[in-house]
UniProtKB/TrEMBL annotation:
Origin: domain of life: Bacteria
Domain Metallo-beta-lactamase span(s) in chain numbering: 15-204
InterPro entries documented for this protein: Metallo-B-lactamas, Mito_Persulfide_Diox, POD-like_MBL-fold, RibonucZ/Hydroxyglut_hydro
Keywords: Metal-binding
Single Gene Ontology MF annotation: metal ion binding
Annotated GO biological process: glutathione metabolic process; hydrogen sulfide metabolic process
CDD domains: POD-like_MBL-fold
Keyword Metal-binding part of the UniProt annotation: yes
Any Pfam family: Lactamase_B
Organism: Xaviernesmea oryzae
Designated name of the protein: Glyoxylase, beta-lactamase superfamily II
């Protein structure tokens, strides 16, 4: 089995991990889940995270072939569009992003918004393959956290987004619009059916107990050590997940981020004064925990 080179980049502000996965033979690489910096207090956007990735790629002499998102993120802006402009690489996401676009089009009241996934160069179906140099990638549709989530499997590495966290962090929430705890359980089981030594790269780490950030585990470690998985059945998992989700506040950037991320990372178009504006729907997520 091929062993790609994987480098993670941790964003302290959002707890997100961004990845560069590279083919050592050809120097081709893909960027997965890149973060566009955003300060909600000032409304400022920055490219520090994305530029650090570009600097790493330049130092290693890599060539970007793909910019991939695992799903439309609720806690940070995607830097996919910025990186596409800088590198010319193709962008991709799972084909069910169209369902998420439809959900949020209605929430934002955007009657003219195109919910066809045309904001990306490629929409991946379950089981579809792609290449990074001589490496072959495979897509596993992994809904539950969102209706559009996918896992990218490249050689012995799987990029599992917000399904499983590190074993001491449990699993992702399943209470966003279009999410479902039962589907999340099925997606986790599909990931854990991969070979025991498969390296699993998670999309977030919130540093339980204040430990250092970590983002790599294995299938065997997750089966053995994750309390949301070990000794658990579907009924127990759904009960656990739904009870916990009822206590969690919505991510602070959710209403900001989705209107950018369902556009493939493109900011809203400038208005007649040259400024861009984010639209915050009032009362769209009634019943959410305040935090």
């Amino acid at each position: 089995m091929a062993i790609p080179q994987v480098q993670g980049f941790y964003d302290e502000r959002t707890g997100s991990i961004q990845y560069v996965v590279a083919d050592s033979t050809t120097k081709a690489c893909a960027i997965i889940d890149p973060v566009l910096d955003f300060d909600e207090k000032s409304g400022s956007v920055g490219t520090g995270n994305a530029d650090a990735i570009l600097a790493f790629i330049s130092r290693r002499g890599l060539v970007v072939e793909w910019i991939l998102d695992t799903h439309p993120h609720a806690d940070h802006f995607s830097a996919a569009r910025y990186l596409k402009v800088r590198t010319g690489a193709r962008t991709g996401i799972g084909e069910h992003v169209r369902r998420v676009q439809q959900i949020w089009k209605d929430i934002y009241n955007w009657p003219d918004f195109a919910c066809d996934g045309s904001q990306w160069d490629r929409l991946f179906a379950d089981g579809e393959t792609f290449e990074i140099g001589t490496l072959q990638g495979r897509v596993i549709y992994s809904p539950g956290h969102t209706a559009a989530s996918v896992t990218y499997v490249v050689g012995d590495a799987a990029f599992i987004h917000d399904t499983l966290f590190m074993p001491d962090g449990g699993t992702a929430r399943a209470d966003f619009p279009g999410a479902d705890a039962g589907r999340l359980w099925a997606s986790i089981q599909a990931i854990l059916a991969l070979p025991d030594k498969t390296r699993l790269f998670t999309g977030h780490d919130y540093r339980p107990g204040g430990r250092e950030a970590r983002w790599e585990s294995t299938v065997a470690e997750q089966r053995r050590d994750n309390p949301h998985v070990a000794g658990m059945d579907e009924t127990g998992f759904i009960a656990l997940r739904e009870a916990r989700d009822r206590t969690l506040p919505i991510p602070k950037l959710m209403l900001h981020a989705l209107q950018v991320n369902i556009r493939g990372g493109e900011l809203p178009p400038p208005e007649d004064n040259g400024r861009r504006y984010l639209k915050i729907p009032i009362g769209a997520l009634l019943g959410s925990v305040w935090g």
